[in-house]
């Protein structure tokens, strides 16, 4: 039996969340074209009779601007500490020298596999150049190319990972697919709709606080606050005659119903908490 932690690192928007979802065949991490969508470390647990692979999506590596960013980078640090294998994800169209500098700065103590992503967007020669570039780096034990969005060869990918993992007993029950609870994923699915529907900087100023999660006989009742920093942001999220909050609520409810397989009654409120991203108590309350 092989069991170990395979943790994904990379710049924002490299496709870390898409890769996790593709490997899990399950939407565990929300995705958006906007950078810094992932704020937590999200573990997916893959269990078969001869292995258990715990795959972690982590926030994109950035220079922290405020306390929320610091919390996000702490999630990266914790993933560095327990990794058995680091997956260093690179968008093939990104600046490879910058990625190399970030990966070198991680000072990895475990084997690393560089995953060159989005190869469907470039010519084969360009993908091969990326393979050659990273293969020469001292931290890199192997390079693999994928297109996480259009589908990956899951068996080939996992076999490559397993070759670096130790033998051992599983860490989690075989039925678990994540160490996070349903409340967490509910909040993330609401936040995903804000990233999808709200423009510009609004998503970065919002947090979700699940105030109530009640499983009743016929449905699940969820009451959640969307927390923003300013009254102007609240007005945008509510929209003209409540049009925006209604769209967010409808789309989030459908996504949550699909995720948990039950009918959902979802009630959303928008609350203003100035500078919540810098407030230790607020950050703790919202799960950071």
- At the first level of CATH, the class of the largest domain is Alpha Beta
Number of strands: 9
User: Strand count, sense and closure of the main sheet?
Assistant: 6 strands, mixed
- Spatial strand arrangement across the major sheet: 2-3-1-4-5-6
CATH architecture of the largest domain: 3-Layer(aba) Sandwich
Distance between the termini: 34 Å
* Uncertain regions spanning at least 5 consecutive residues: none
Mean model confidence by pLDDT: 95
Overall shape: it is globular
Residue share in β-strands: 15-25%
Task: List the defining traits of the structure above.
2 domains; Rossmann fold; GMP Synthetase, Chain A, domain 3; 288 residues; alpha/beta
Description:
The chain is α/β, with parallel strands linked by helices and 288 residues long. It folds into two domains: 2-162, 3-Layer(aba) Sandwich (Rossmann fold), CATH 3.40.50; 182-285, GMP Synthetase, Chain A, domain 3 (2-Layer Sandwich), CATH 3.30.300. It is 36% helix and 24% strand. The protein contains nine helices and nine strands. The chain has helices spanning 16-24, 67-82, 96-105, 124-135, 154-162, 182-197, 231-238, 243-260, 280-285; strands spanning 2-10, 42-48, 51-57, 85-91, 112-117, 140-145, 207-215, 220-228, 264-272. It has a six-stranded mixed beta sheet, sandwiched between helices. Strands 7-8-9 form a three-stranded mixed beta sheet. Strand 2 (42-48) and strand 3 form a beta hairpin. Helix 6 crosses helix 8 (243-260). The mean pLDDT is 95.
């Amino acid at each position: 039996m092989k069991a170990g932690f395979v943790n994904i690192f990379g710049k924002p928007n490299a496709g870390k969340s898409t890769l996790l979802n593709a490997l899990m065949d399950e939407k565990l991490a929300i995705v958006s074209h906007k950078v810094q969508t992932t704020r937590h470390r999200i573990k997916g647990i893959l269990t078969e009779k001869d292995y258990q692979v715990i795959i972690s999506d982590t926030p994109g590596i950035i220079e922290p601007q405020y306390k929320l960013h610091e919390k996000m980078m702490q999630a990266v640090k914790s993933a560095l500490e327990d990794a058995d294998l680091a997956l260093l994800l690179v968008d093939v169209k990104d600046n490879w020298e910058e990625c190399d500098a970030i990966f070198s700065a991680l000072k990895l103590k475990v084997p690393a596999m560089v995953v060159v992503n989005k190869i469907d967007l470039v010519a084969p020669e360009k993908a091969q150049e990326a393979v050659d570039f990273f293969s020469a780096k001292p931290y890199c034990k192997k390079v693999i190319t994928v297109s996480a969005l259009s589908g990956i060869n899951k068996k080939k990918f996992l076999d490559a990972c397993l070759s670096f993992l130790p033998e051992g007993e599983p860490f989690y029950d075989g039925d678990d697919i994540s160490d996070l609870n349903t409340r967490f994923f509910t909040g993330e699915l609401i936040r995903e709709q804000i990233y999808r529907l709200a423009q510009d900087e609004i998503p970065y100023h919002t947090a979700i606080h699940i105030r109530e999660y009640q499983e009743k006989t016929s449905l699940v009742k969820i009451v959640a606050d969307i927390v923003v920093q300013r009254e102007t942001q609240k007005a945008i999220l509510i929209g003209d005659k409540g049009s925006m909050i209604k769209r967010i609520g409808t789309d989030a409810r459908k996504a949550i119903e699909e995720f948990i397989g039950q009918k959902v009654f979802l009630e959303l409120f928008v609350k203003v908490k100035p500078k919540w991203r810098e407030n230790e108590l607020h950050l703790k309350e919202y799960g950071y």
